[in-house]
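G., the chain you wanted modeled:
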Amino acid sequence: MSNSSSAQSRKSSKGFEKIQIASNEYDHCVDGLRRIYREKLSPIEQLSRYVELYGGAFRDADFTAKPLVVLLGMYSSGKTTFIRYLMRRDFPGMRVGPEPTTETFSVIRYADHDSSIPGHTLVAEDGPFRDLSRYGDEFLDKLTGVYTKASVLEELTFIDTPGILAGKKQTQSRRYDMDAVVDWLCMKADRIIVVFDALNLDIPDEFQGVVNGVQKNISKVRIVLNKADQVSGQQLMRVYGALMWTLTKMLKSPELPKVYIGSFWDKPVKGSDEERGAAFDTRKMFKREQETLFNDLQSLPRISALAKLSMLTKRVRLLRAHSILVNTIRNQMPTLFGKEDKKRDIVRRLGAICEEIEAKQNVLKIDWHPVEDMQIRLQTIDFGGFHAMKEKNMAILSDVLQLDLPYVMNAIRSDDFH
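Predicted structure as C-alpha coordinates:
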Protein backbone atom coordinates (compact mmCIF):
# COMPACT_ATOMS: atom_id res chain seq x y z
CA MET A 1 0.00 0.00 0.00
CA SER A 2 1.34 3.46 -0.87
CA ASN A 3 2.08 6.09 1.78
CA SER A 4 -0.82 8.26 0.58
CA SER A 5 -3.33 5.43 0.75
CA SER A 6 -2.01 4.43 4.17
CA ALA A 7 -2.51 7.96 5.43
CA GLN A 8 -5.98 8.00 3.96
CA SER A 9 -6.84 4.73 5.70
CA ARG A 10 -5.57 6.12 9.02
CA LYS A 11 -7.68 9.22 8.49
CA SER A 12 -10.76 7.16 7.69
CA SER A 13 -10.37 5.19 10.90
CA LYS A 14 -10.90 8.46 12.80
CA GLY A 15 -13.84 9.54 10.69
CA PHE A 16 -17.25 9.75 12.21
CA GLU A 17 -15.76 9.67 15.71
CA LYS A 18 -18.95 11.11 17.20
CA ILE A 19 -20.94 8.08 16.16
CA GLN A 20 -19.86 5.17 18.32
CA ILE A 21 -22.04 2.10 17.92
CA ALA A 22 -21.29 -1.18 19.65
CA SER A 23 -21.90 -3.46 16.70
CA ASN A 24 -21.44 -6.57 18.85
CA GLU A 25 -24.81 -6.00 20.55
CA TYR A 26 -26.53 -5.31 17.24
CA ASP A 27 -24.98 -8.37 15.57
CA HIS A 28 -25.91 -10.55 18.56
CA CYS A 29 -29.57 -9.47 18.45
CA VAL A 30 -30.10 -9.77 14.70
CA ASP A 31 -28.29 -13.11 14.60
CA GLY A 32 -30.65 -14.30 17.32
CA LEU A 33 -33.62 -13.30 15.15
CA ARG A 34 -32.07 -15.05 12.16
CA ARG A 35 -31.64 -18.27 14.14
CA ILE A 36 -35.19 -18.14 15.51
CA TYR A 37 -36.52 -17.91 11.98
CA ARG A 38 -34.24 -20.49 10.41
CA GLU A 39 -34.39 -23.11 13.18
CA LYS A 40 -37.96 -22.73 14.47
CA LEU A 41 -40.20 -20.88 12.02
CA SER A 42 -38.95 -21.87 8.58
CA PRO A 43 -39.69 -25.62 9.09
CA ILE A 44 -43.24 -24.78 10.16
CA GLU A 45 -43.66 -22.48 7.16
CA GLN A 46 -42.73 -25.37 4.87
CA LEU A 47 -44.94 -27.86 6.72
CA SER A 48 -47.97 -25.56 6.66
CA ARG A 49 -47.32 -24.50 3.04
CA TYR A 50 -47.24 -20.87 4.17
CA VAL A 51 -44.47 -19.86 1.78
CA GLU A 52 -46.15 -21.77 -1.05
CA LEU A 53 -49.28 -19.69 -0.51
CA TYR A 54 -47.86 -16.29 0.37
CA GLY A 55 -44.25 -16.40 -0.78
CA GLY A 56 -41.57 -14.26 0.79
CA ALA A 57 -39.38 -16.71 2.70
CA PHE A 58 -36.87 -14.65 4.65
CA ARG A 59 -33.21 -14.85 3.71
CA ASP A 60 -30.32 -14.47 6.14
CA ALA A 61 -29.62 -11.04 4.66
CA ASP A 62 -33.07 -9.84 5.74
CA PHE A 63 -31.76 -10.04 9.29
CA THR A 64 -28.00 -9.51 9.06
CA ALA A 65 -27.88 -6.55 6.65
CA LYS A 66 -26.48 -3.36 8.16
CA PRO A 67 -28.91 -0.46 8.68
CA LEU A 68 -29.47 1.29 5.34
CA VAL A 69 -29.28 5.06 4.78
CA VAL A 70 -30.58 6.35 1.42
CA LEU A 71 -29.64 9.82 0.15
CA LEU A 72 -32.10 11.63 -2.13
CA GLY A 73 -32.07 15.15 -3.50
CA MET A 74 -31.68 17.45 -6.46
CA TYR A 75 -28.45 17.39 -8.43
CA SER A 76 -25.65 19.46 -6.93
CA SER A 77 -27.39 19.61 -3.55
CA GLY A 78 -24.43 17.92 -1.88
CA LYS A 79 -25.55 14.27 -1.43
CA THR A 80 -22.24 12.71 -2.44
CA THR A 81 -20.27 15.34 -0.50
CA PHE A 82 -22.45 14.62 2.54
CA ILE A 83 -21.50 10.93 2.40
CA ARG A 84 -17.86 11.82 1.93
CA TYR A 85 -18.10 14.12 4.94
CA LEU A 86 -19.35 11.28 7.11
CA MET A 87 -16.67 8.89 5.85
CA ARG A 88 -13.87 11.47 5.91
CA ARG A 89 -12.52 10.17 2.63
CA ASP A 90 -13.23 9.71 -1.08
CA PHE A 91 -14.74 6.49 -2.31
CA PRO A 92 -14.48 4.66 -5.67
CA GLY A 93 -16.52 6.28 -8.43
CA MET A 94 -17.21 9.45 -6.43
CA ARG A 95 -17.89 12.53 -8.57
CA VAL A 96 -18.95 15.95 -7.32
CA GLY A 97 -19.63 19.17 -9.18
CA PRO A 98 -22.20 21.90 -9.98
CA GLU A 99 -23.63 19.92 -12.89
CA PRO A 100 -25.43 16.53 -12.61
CA THR A 101 -22.46 14.25 -11.86
CA THR A 102 -23.80 11.19 -10.01
CA GLU A 103 -25.44 9.09 -12.71
CA THR A 104 -25.47 5.82 -10.81
CA PHE A 105 -27.01 4.32 -7.70
CA SER A 106 -23.99 3.54 -5.52
CA VAL A 107 -24.38 1.01 -2.70
CA ILE A 108 -21.49 1.91 -0.39
CA ARG A 109 -20.29 -0.75 2.05
CA TYR A 110 -17.26 -1.57 4.17
CA ALA A 111 -14.20 -3.47 2.98
CA ASP A 112 -10.50 -3.38 3.83
CA HIS A 113 -9.62 -2.38 0.27
CA ASP A 114 -11.26 -0.08 -2.26
CA SER A 115 -13.15 -1.82 -5.04
CA SER A 116 -16.39 -1.72 -6.99
CA ILE A 117 -18.64 -4.25 -8.72
CA PRO A 118 -21.30 -3.80 -11.42
CA GLY A 119 -24.98 -3.89 -10.58
CA HIS A 120 -25.55 -7.27 -12.22
CA THR A 121 -22.98 -8.81 -9.87
CA LEU A 122 -24.38 -7.00 -6.83
CA VAL A 123 -27.91 -8.35 -7.29
CA ALA A 124 -26.58 -11.85 -8.02
CA GLU A 125 -25.35 -12.02 -4.42
CA ASP A 126 -27.70 -13.56 -1.87
CA GLY A 127 -27.93 -10.21 -0.14
CA PRO A 128 -30.44 -7.45 0.64
CA PHE A 129 -30.29 -5.94 -2.87
CA ARG A 130 -31.18 -9.07 -4.81
CA ASP A 131 -34.74 -7.90 -5.51
CA LEU A 132 -33.46 -4.87 -7.43
CA SER A 133 -33.02 -7.21 -10.41
CA ARG A 134 -36.76 -6.75 -11.10
CA TYR A 135 -36.09 -3.26 -12.48
CA GLY A 136 -34.26 -4.56 -15.53
CA ASP A 137 -30.91 -4.36 -17.26
CA GLU A 138 -31.16 -0.63 -17.99
CA PHE A 139 -31.33 0.04 -14.27
CA LEU A 140 -28.67 -2.52 -13.35
CA ASP A 141 -26.31 -0.77 -15.76
CA LYS A 142 -26.71 2.30 -13.52
CA LEU A 143 -26.23 0.38 -10.27
CA THR A 144 -22.85 -0.25 -8.70
CA GLY A 145 -21.55 -1.73 -5.48
CA VAL A 146 -18.77 0.28 -3.84
CA TYR A 147 -16.46 -0.99 -1.13
CA THR A 148 -14.13 1.19 0.91
CA LYS A 149 -12.54 1.37 4.34
CA ALA A 150 -14.37 3.88 6.53
CA SER A 151 -15.35 3.32 10.14
CA VAL A 152 -18.95 4.44 9.66
CA LEU A 153 -19.43 1.71 7.06
CA GLU A 154 -18.74 -0.92 9.68
CA GLU A 155 -22.11 0.07 11.14
CA LEU A 156 -24.16 1.52 8.26
CA THR A 157 -24.64 1.07 4.52
CA PHE A 158 -25.23 4.13 2.33
CA ILE A 159 -26.90 4.46 -1.05
CA ASP A 160 -25.98 7.51 -3.11
CA THR A 161 -28.58 8.21 -5.78
CA PRO A 162 -28.57 10.20 -9.02
CA GLY A 163 -29.62 13.83 -8.66
CA ILE A 164 -33.29 14.45 -9.32
CA LEU A 165 -33.60 16.24 -12.65
CA ALA A 166 -35.74 19.06 -13.99
CA GLY A 167 -37.74 18.91 -17.20
CA LYS A 168 -39.32 16.03 -19.08
CA LYS A 169 -36.59 15.94 -21.69
CA GLN A 170 -33.97 15.12 -19.05
CA THR A 171 -36.10 12.65 -17.09
CA GLN A 172 -37.12 10.79 -20.24
CA SER A 173 -33.45 9.99 -20.80
CA ARG A 174 -33.68 7.60 -17.86
CA ARG A 175 -34.47 4.22 -19.39
CA TYR A 176 -35.74 2.70 -16.15
CA ASP A 177 -38.56 3.46 -13.70
CA MET A 178 -36.91 5.94 -11.32
CA ASP A 179 -40.06 6.31 -9.19
CA ALA A 180 -40.40 2.54 -8.66
CA VAL A 181 -36.72 2.19 -7.74
CA VAL A 182 -36.91 5.04 -5.22
CA ASP A 183 -40.11 3.55 -3.79
CA TRP A 184 -38.31 0.21 -3.20
CA LEU A 185 -35.28 1.91 -1.66
CA CYS A 186 -37.47 3.96 0.69
CA MET A 187 -39.31 0.82 1.78
CA LYS A 188 -36.03 -0.96 2.59
CA ALA A 189 -34.24 2.02 4.15
CA ASP A 190 -33.83 2.57 7.87
CA ARG A 191 -33.23 6.28 7.28
CA ILE A 192 -34.03 8.47 4.24
CA ILE A 193 -32.08 11.73 4.04
CA VAL A 194 -33.44 14.25 1.53
CA VAL A 195 -30.89 16.98 0.79
CA PHE A 196 -31.87 20.48 -0.33
CA ASP A 197 -29.54 23.25 -1.49
CA ALA A 198 -30.00 26.56 0.35
CA LEU A 199 -28.75 28.33 -2.79
CA ASN A 200 -31.31 26.70 -5.07
CA LEU A 201 -34.68 25.57 -3.74
CA ASP A 202 -36.27 25.00 -7.15
CA ILE A 203 -38.14 21.69 -6.97
CA PRO A 204 -37.84 19.83 -10.31
CA ASP A 205 -40.64 17.88 -11.98
CA GLU A 206 -39.04 14.52 -11.20
CA PHE A 207 -39.21 15.15 -7.46
CA GLN A 208 -42.99 14.88 -7.63
CA GLY A 209 -42.53 11.29 -8.74
CA VAL A 210 -40.32 10.29 -5.80
CA VAL A 211 -42.59 11.94 -3.23
CA ASN A 212 -44.78 8.82 -3.15
CA GLY A 213 -41.97 6.65 -1.77
CA VAL A 214 -41.06 9.37 0.73
CA GLN A 215 -44.67 9.90 1.87
CA LYS A 216 -45.24 6.20 2.57
CA ASN A 217 -42.14 6.12 4.79
CA ILE A 218 -42.39 9.56 6.35
CA SER A 219 -41.24 8.39 9.80
CA LYS A 220 -37.85 7.42 8.31
CA VAL A 221 -37.30 10.78 6.58
CA ARG A 222 -34.90 13.51 7.68
CA ILE A 223 -34.36 16.73 5.72
CA VAL A 224 -30.97 18.41 5.32
CA LEU A 225 -30.87 22.07 4.27
CA ASN A 226 -27.30 22.12 3.01
CA LYS A 227 -24.86 24.96 2.14
CA ALA A 228 -26.58 27.15 4.73
CA ASP A 229 -23.36 29.07 5.40
CA GLN A 230 -23.39 30.43 1.84
CA VAL A 231 -26.43 32.66 2.35
CA SER A 232 -26.98 35.59 4.70
CA GLY A 233 -28.82 35.17 7.96
CA GLN A 234 -31.88 36.92 6.58
CA GLN A 235 -31.80 34.84 3.41
CA LEU A 236 -31.48 31.65 5.48
CA MET A 237 -34.65 32.48 7.39
CA ARG A 238 -36.51 33.07 4.11
CA VAL A 239 -35.12 29.88 2.56
CA TYR A 240 -36.09 27.83 5.63
CA GLY A 241 -39.62 29.24 5.55
CA ALA A 242 -39.94 28.54 1.83
CA LEU A 243 -38.68 24.98 2.34
CA MET A 244 -41.19 24.29 5.12
CA TRP A 245 -44.04 25.68 2.98
CA THR A 246 -42.95 23.51 0.03
CA LEU A 247 -42.65 20.38 2.17
CA THR A 248 -46.09 20.96 3.72
CA LYS A 249 -47.62 21.29 0.26
CA MET A 250 -45.83 18.30 -1.26
CA LEU A 251 -45.83 15.74 1.56
CA LYS A 252 -49.38 16.44 2.73
CA SER A 253 -48.42 15.23 6.20
CA PRO A 254 -49.68 16.72 9.46
CA GLU A 255 -46.19 16.31 10.91
CA LEU A 256 -43.16 17.24 8.85
CA PRO A 257 -39.79 15.48 9.14
CA LYS A 258 -37.02 17.05 11.20
CA VAL A 259 -34.98 19.59 9.21
CA TYR A 260 -31.22 19.89 9.87
CA ILE A 261 -29.57 23.15 8.81
CA GLY A 262 -25.86 23.35 8.13
CA SER A 263 -23.01 22.96 5.72
CA PHE A 264 -22.13 19.29 5.54
CA TRP A 265 -18.67 19.10 4.08
CA ASP A 266 -15.13 19.10 5.43
CA LYS A 267 -14.41 22.81 4.89
CA PRO A 268 -14.75 25.53 7.54
CA VAL A 269 -18.01 27.45 7.82
CA LYS A 270 -17.92 30.25 5.28
CA GLY A 271 -17.82 33.82 6.62
CA SER A 272 -18.67 35.18 10.05
CA ASP A 273 -22.07 35.84 11.57
CA GLU A 274 -21.44 39.58 11.14
CA GLU A 275 -20.67 39.11 7.44
CA ARG A 276 -23.81 37.04 6.98
CA GLY A 277 -25.88 39.54 8.93
CA ALA A 278 -27.08 36.82 11.29
CA ALA A 279 -29.05 37.88 14.36
CA PHE A 280 -27.89 34.74 16.22
CA ASP A 281 -24.82 32.52 16.47
CA THR A 282 -25.16 30.41 13.30
CA ARG A 283 -21.86 28.61 13.86
CA LYS A 284 -23.13 27.17 17.12
CA MET A 285 -26.45 26.35 15.47
CA PHE A 286 -24.74 24.54 12.59
CA LYS A 287 -22.60 22.56 15.06
CA ARG A 288 -25.63 21.69 17.19
CA GLU A 289 -27.61 20.58 14.14
CA GLN A 290 -24.70 18.43 13.00
CA GLU A 291 -24.41 16.73 16.39
CA THR A 292 -28.16 16.12 16.51
CA LEU A 293 -28.05 14.49 13.08
CA PHE A 294 -25.08 12.35 14.13
CA ASN A 295 -27.02 11.23 17.21
CA ASP A 296 -29.94 10.29 14.99
CA LEU A 297 -27.69 8.14 12.81
CA GLN A 298 -26.16 6.63 15.91
CA SER A 299 -29.60 5.33 16.91
CA LEU A 300 -30.09 3.42 13.65
CA PRO A 301 -28.74 0.02 14.78
CA ARG A 302 -31.26 -0.04 17.62
CA ILE A 303 -34.05 1.18 15.32
CA SER A 304 -33.09 -1.39 12.69
CA ALA A 305 -33.01 -4.20 15.25
CA LEU A 306 -36.46 -3.17 16.53
CA ALA A 307 -37.80 -3.06 12.97
CA LYS A 308 -36.51 -6.59 12.31
CA LEU A 309 -37.99 -7.76 15.61
CA SER A 310 -41.33 -6.24 14.62
CA MET A 311 -41.11 -7.86 11.18
CA LEU A 312 -40.51 -11.29 12.71
CA THR A 313 -43.21 -10.84 15.37
CA LYS A 314 -45.76 -10.04 12.69
CA ARG A 315 -44.60 -13.08 10.70
CA VAL A 316 -45.02 -15.41 13.70
CA ARG A 317 -48.56 -14.16 14.34
CA LEU A 318 -49.47 -14.61 10.67
CA LEU A 319 -47.95 -18.10 10.70
CA ARG A 320 -49.77 -19.09 13.89
CA ALA A 321 -53.15 -17.94 12.54
CA HIS A 322 -52.45 -19.72 9.24
CA SER A 323 -51.51 -22.94 11.08
CA ILE A 324 -54.74 -22.89 13.07
CA LEU A 325 -56.65 -22.34 9.82
CA VAL A 326 -54.88 -25.32 8.24
CA ASN A 327 -56.09 -27.58 11.08
CA THR A 328 -59.60 -26.13 10.78
CA ILE A 329 -59.66 -26.84 7.04
CA ARG A 330 -58.41 -30.41 7.58
CA ASN A 331 -61.10 -31.04 10.18
CA GLN A 332 -63.86 -29.83 7.85
CA MET A 333 -62.75 -31.65 4.71
CA PRO A 334 -64.53 -34.95 3.83
CA THR A 335 -62.50 -38.15 3.70
CA LEU A 336 -63.65 -39.45 0.30
CA PHE A 337 -66.32 -37.62 -1.70
CA GLY A 338 -67.32 -33.99 -2.25
CA LYS A 339 -63.88 -32.51 -1.65
CA GLU A 340 -64.11 -29.82 -4.34
CA ASP A 341 -67.58 -28.74 -3.23
CA LYS A 342 -66.39 -28.49 0.36
CA LYS A 343 -63.31 -26.56 -0.69
CA ARG A 344 -65.50 -23.98 -2.47
CA ASP A 345 -67.73 -23.76 0.60
CA ILE A 346 -64.76 -23.17 2.91
CA VAL A 347 -63.33 -20.48 0.64
CA ARG A 348 -66.74 -18.80 0.43
CA ARG A 349 -67.16 -18.83 4.23
CA LEU A 350 -63.54 -17.96 4.98
CA GLY A 351 -64.36 -14.65 6.67
CA ALA A 352 -66.76 -16.34 9.11
CA ILE A 353 -64.28 -19.17 9.76
CA CYS A 354 -61.56 -16.63 10.65
CA GLU A 355 -63.94 -14.85 13.03
CA GLU A 356 -64.73 -18.14 14.75
CA ILE A 357 -61.01 -18.86 15.16
CA GLU A 358 -60.49 -15.36 16.59
CA ALA A 359 -63.16 -16.02 19.23
CA LYS A 360 -61.72 -19.36 20.34
CA GLN A 361 -57.96 -19.29 19.71
CA ASN A 362 -56.66 -15.88 20.88
CA VAL A 363 -56.14 -14.71 17.31
CA LEU A 364 -56.55 -11.02 16.38
CA LYS A 365 -57.93 -9.57 13.15
CA ILE A 366 -54.49 -8.15 12.37
CA ASP A 367 -53.04 -11.68 12.50
CA TRP A 368 -54.60 -12.53 9.12
CA HIS A 369 -53.68 -11.66 5.60
CA PRO A 370 -56.59 -9.80 3.93
CA VAL A 371 -59.47 -12.28 3.62
CA GLU A 372 -59.99 -11.52 -0.09
CA ASP A 373 -56.33 -12.25 -0.76
CA MET A 374 -56.51 -15.48 1.25
CA GLN A 375 -59.57 -16.61 -0.72
CA ILE A 376 -57.82 -16.06 -4.04
CA ARG A 377 -54.71 -17.96 -2.93
CA LEU A 378 -56.57 -20.84 -1.30
CA GLN A 379 -58.50 -21.47 -4.52
CA THR A 380 -55.23 -22.38 -6.25
CA ILE A 381 -54.06 -25.01 -3.75
CA ASP A 382 -55.00 -28.64 -3.12
CA PHE A 383 -56.38 -28.86 0.41
CA GLY A 384 -55.44 -32.54 0.47
CA GLY A 385 -51.80 -31.49 0.66
CA PHE A 386 -52.19 -29.79 4.04
CA HIS A 387 -50.39 -31.55 6.89
CA ALA A 388 -51.72 -31.61 10.43
CA MET A 389 -50.15 -28.92 12.54
CA LYS A 390 -49.38 -30.89 15.69
CA GLU A 391 -49.34 -29.60 19.24
CA LYS A 392 -45.54 -29.45 19.25
CA ASN A 393 -45.61 -27.13 16.23
CA MET A 394 -48.13 -24.82 17.87
CA ALA A 395 -46.09 -24.92 21.09
CA ILE A 396 -43.00 -23.76 19.19
CA LEU A 397 -44.91 -20.77 17.83
CA SER A 398 -46.22 -19.91 21.29
CA ASP A 399 -42.73 -20.16 22.79
CA VAL A 400 -41.30 -17.88 20.11
CA LEU A 401 -43.97 -15.26 20.85
CA GLN A 402 -43.87 -15.56 24.62
CA LEU A 403 -40.20 -16.33 25.33
CA ASP A 404 -37.76 -15.92 22.44
CA LEU A 405 -38.89 -12.58 20.99
CA PRO A 406 -39.33 -10.87 24.39
CA TYR A 407 -35.78 -12.00 25.26
CA VAL A 408 -34.44 -10.27 22.14
CA MET A 409 -36.57 -7.20 22.92
CA ASN A 410 -35.02 -6.93 26.38
CA ALA A 411 -31.55 -7.20 24.86
CA ILE A 412 -32.30 -4.36 22.42
CA ARG A 413 -33.71 -2.18 25.21
CA SER A 414 -30.83 -2.86 27.60
CA ASP A 415 -28.32 -0.16 28.47
CA ASP A 416 -25.58 -2.31 26.88
CA PHE A 417 -27.11 -1.71 23.43
CA HIS A 418 -25.46 1.61 22.53
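The beta strands are 68-73, 105-110, 115-118, 143-148, 157-160, 191-197, 221-226, 259-261.

Shout if anything looks off.
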